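Sample 3 of the quickstart, ligand TLP:
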Amino acid sequence: MIDLRSDTVTRPSERMRAAMAAAEVGDDVFGEDPTINRLEALAAARFDREAAIWVPSGSMGNTIAVKLHTEPGSELIIEERGHILNFELGAAAVISGVTIRAVKCADGGGHLAWDDIAPAIRKNPPYYQAATKLICLENSHNFAGGSVISADATREICDRAHSEGLAVHLDGARIFNAATALNCDVKELTRACDSVMFCLSKGLGAPAGSMLVGSKEFIERARSWRKRLGGGMRQVGVLAAAGIIALEDGPALLERDHRNAKRLASGLAEIPGIAIDPENVATNIVIFDVSNARLSAAEIVAKLKEKGVLAIGFGTQIRMVTHLDIADDDIDTALSAIKQILL
Ligand code: TLP
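Result:
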């Protein structure tokens, strides 16, 4: 199977498996797992932050951040296709008691400018309205086709938010993809944000785990919330050992995924009935529209599966994601499968 459903599907490499088997471990709830402690120190240094904490999933990292930046009955603002709004089962409402205000971005590319955000802010609302506490950004933006927002644009939003007394959390599940596309360091890309979540388990290739980075005080409070949510995981150095390899070696490997995504998008653009602009594919996510194709997205996905290619269809769109386990040749195979289906 050529599995283009997500970059979450990668299997740990032989090197990761060996490191996992040999990992030195202890009870992380007592702070005694040397491997997780090393990973947390490495992540904090990589982002030039005081502290970092390993969490079992990106969703838990985002949930904890939302909890810490808000209070029950307040609001957060996010672009309308954001993961926190659409794919985290209302965790912001369930765990934090927060309303989510979805905002459209004027340029359509998935990234909010301050002018999109400002009208939605309720700074000192009347007593019967919820006050805005938090802005959530996403870089790269998954369901906006893996699009990226620059360090300058991020900083501008953060500076303006801070001057309004609002916090900014970055869902950086794929921040290393964004940094690769923008050719900049993750430190610069994320410096102005109050907290950052990034995933080890996506393009970087670890079998599980994400990191939340921020101030020492923020991460200490995050540790309590992680435990409260059931994320105190004992001898978790077994997973951290893979995470360290993902963090150290993974970023340099992303460029190939981006090249493959671009080539996939260019091939797709030539197939009648498929709408995609390869120019807009900046990272490893390829989302194309099939409204004008002779089959629906669901039918195309089903036929692709018969031919050994997995993708995800939603509405009139299909998403394909390149990753470590997708070889260059797999792109040609996937393109010829979709041509056979649609031509
Ligand atoms: N994304 C998954 C699905 O949930 C859609 C995927 O296949 O892309 N933030 C962003 C931007 C994400 O894309 C994801 C996962 C998460 C957070 C949540 O991470 P996990 O799956 O570790 O909870």
